[in-house]
User: Which sequence fits this backbone?
């Protein structure tokens, strides 16, 4: 039993059991443990509202008492609402007192999960292939004004923000959940909420480095239960949200792109290795709850990359009449799906040896030998190895090519291996003549040396290479067991291919030749889009100006301006190197969101280069009148 002692302004708590009763006199304090003054006089009503203890003062005011905050002789009390004073001992003044106390409640939950392949959705709500994450902080905020029973804004009705973390009993059940939230205000209006996710400090699988949040597939939070419902936050300003497509470009941008570490075939990492994202937070769109129900709402898909450094090593064993391929995934935190293609003479569909080609999965931290036998042919042997990362059966990222060309005669021994791998900002060309020992043969007879003629074609223009100059042109001449390494300078965005021919120095009638490419040399990329949004209101004129600054970007972006999830302007395109201003007619307390996305139409490479030397263009202010007609919103 709870009561108020009038003369001392204290709270009386009476506890009953079967044989006796006990009471305490407690001093009221606020949430900061400071003395809280409650009205003098009579309290004409008290009630229990879903476990909440409410007192009504005849002098005016509703007060909530929190028994679970009792500490020593203190108890927390909070004023919920103002009410009119009454001389009657009913504390309510009948129906003239508007109700400002939540009466309809609901529960809400959601998930944070890893979107390994960056698809924007997962295979199932729970128990799917992409695991949920423990330890993600979720802040839920009420985004609409709470109205009393007379449709007036309540000054104080209770909490408007809640913070929880994703947790659960198993990996497939980690979730965030908040219970007993107001679902409707006292005038019957739906209440709109928004969820903010922060994965800072969350528990991620070994080797996984988060880079942000995955793309969104649907506009509404309730459109799908298996997709991601958040936009990546890129600044502290609440008026700007950036689409994951733009954020992904920010994360993937490098001064020099992917760098291959060569071990005969080389290794490939198809994932970004840039630094941490600007922020670890993302925010959902608005959603509502259902009274007396538990509903699934905002989920957040987190993208990133694992450790992935697969290596394929080719060894030609003439004694065993076999080619061994070591598939090394020991430096990776995810599985690797290797695909081995074996060709004779040249890389053409008709020359693929299907019986010797195949796919093989190598687990994370593992090293396996390729399971199929590959007898060396009398002529040219070409082996291409492709690899893709895999996790729980889900393939991640694009295929990476780790390939070389080798041509071998075993009797008498003569073998040449050619490899060309981008090592930005150059192209590494390795030419190797294998020794008898490297072919697993006796030192005698010694393997032949070779004369190798190599021509690099860059956008169709030939360039002869070599360490020996003659009247007939440059070429390489290498004894068995030696190799040559060239770092070739190639123009960005040019197409390159290498044609080569090797001649046996002992038996010149034996020749080999091959072609690598054509391929695009793509190292440097234009700086990613990073538009900034500012908003300057002018209360005297009832106008406000949005400035969207795309002047530092070489990319076109689209913008949409929303007010309470309703589009009031856009989508419209802002070209690269442009600052665009939009003027809106507004009311007090209007709240806007600017959503930025990467435009489908982008400048070509030549235009990007021209943009780099151009000055910023300032577009004139544009006034929006016809699309904006709303009242005051929070």
Assistant:
């Amino acid at each position: 039993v709870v009561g108020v002692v009038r003369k001392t302004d204290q709270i009386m708590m009476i506890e009953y059991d079967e044989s006796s009763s006990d009471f305490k006199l407690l001093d009221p304090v606020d949430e900061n443990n400071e003395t809280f003054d409650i009205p003098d006089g009579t309290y004409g009503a008290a009630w229990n509202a879903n476990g909440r203890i409410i007192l009504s003062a005849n002098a005016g005011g509703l007060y909530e008492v929190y028994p679970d905050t009792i500490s020593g002789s203190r108890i927390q009390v909070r004023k919920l609402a103002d009410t009119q004073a009454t001389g009657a001992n009913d504390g309510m003044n009948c129906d003239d007192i508007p109700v400002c106390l939540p009466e309809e409640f609901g529960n809400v939950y959601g998930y944070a999960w890893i979107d390994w392949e960056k698809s924007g959705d997962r295979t199932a709500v729970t128990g799917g292939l992409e695991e949920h994450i423990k330890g993600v902080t979720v802040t839920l905020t009420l985004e609409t004004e709470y109205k009393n029973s007379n449709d007036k804004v309540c000054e104080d009705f209770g909490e408007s923000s809640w913070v929880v973390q994703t947790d659960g009993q198993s990996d497939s059940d980690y979730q965030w959940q908040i219970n007993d939230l107001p679902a409707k205000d006292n005038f019957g209006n739906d209440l709109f909420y928004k969820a903010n996710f922060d994965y800072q400090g969350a528990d991620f699988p070994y080797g996984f480095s988060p880079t942000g949040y995955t793309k969104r597939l649907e506009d509404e939070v309730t459109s799908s239960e298996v997709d991601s419902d958040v936009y990546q936050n890129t600044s502290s300003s609440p008026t700007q949200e950036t689409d994951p497509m733009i954020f992904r470009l920010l994360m993937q941008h490098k001064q020099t792109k992917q760098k291959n570490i060569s071990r005969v075939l080389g290794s490939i990492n198809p994932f970004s290795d840039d630094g941490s994202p600007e922020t670890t937070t993302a925010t959902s769109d608005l959603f509502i709850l259902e009274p007396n129900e538990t509903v699934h709402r905002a989920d957040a898909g987190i993208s990133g990359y694992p450790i992935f450094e697969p290596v394929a090593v080719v060894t030609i064993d003439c004694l065993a009449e076999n080619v061994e391929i070591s598939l090394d995934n020991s430096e990776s935190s995810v599985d690797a799906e290797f695909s081995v293609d074996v060709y004779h003479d040249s890389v053409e569909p008709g020359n693929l040896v299907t019986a010797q080609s195949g796919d093989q999965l190598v687990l994370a931290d593992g090293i396996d030998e390729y399971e199929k036998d590959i007898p060396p042919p009398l002529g040219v042997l070409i082996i291409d190895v492709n690899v893709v990362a895999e996790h729980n059966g889900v393939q991640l990222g694009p295929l990476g090519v780790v390939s070389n060309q080798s041509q071998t005669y075993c009797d008498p021994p003569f073998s040449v291996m050619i490899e060309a791998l981008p090592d930005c900002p150059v192209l590494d060309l390795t030419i190797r003549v294998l020794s008898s020992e490297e072919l697993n043969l006796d030192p005698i007879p010694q393997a032949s040396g070779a004369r190798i003629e190599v021509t690099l074609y860059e956008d169709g223009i030939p360039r002869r290479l070599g360490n020996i100059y003659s009247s007939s042109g440059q070429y390489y001449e290498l004894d068995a067991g030696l190799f040559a390494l060239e770092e070739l300078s190639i123009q960005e965005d040019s197409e390159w291919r290498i044609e080569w021919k090797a001649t046996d120095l002992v038996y010149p009638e034996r020749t080999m030749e091959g072609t690598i490419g054509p391929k695009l040399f793509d190292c440097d990329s234009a700086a990613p889009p990073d538009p900034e949004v500012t908003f300057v209101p002018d209360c005297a004129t009832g106008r406000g100006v949005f400035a969207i600054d795309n002047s530092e970007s070489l990319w076109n972006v689209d913008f949409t301006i929303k007010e309470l999830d309703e589009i009031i302007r856009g989508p419209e395109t802002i070209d690269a190197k442009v600052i665009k201003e939009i003027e809106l007619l507004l009311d007090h307390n209007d709240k806007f969101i600017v959503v930025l996305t990467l435009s489908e139409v982008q400048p070509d490479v030549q235009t990007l280069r021209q943009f780099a030397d151009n000055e910023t263009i300032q577009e004139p202010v544009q006034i929006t009148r016809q699309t904006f007609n709303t009242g005051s919103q929070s």
Q: What stands out?
A: The chain has four domains: 2-96, 104-233+279-305, 311-520, 532-624. The first helix runs from residue 244 to 252.
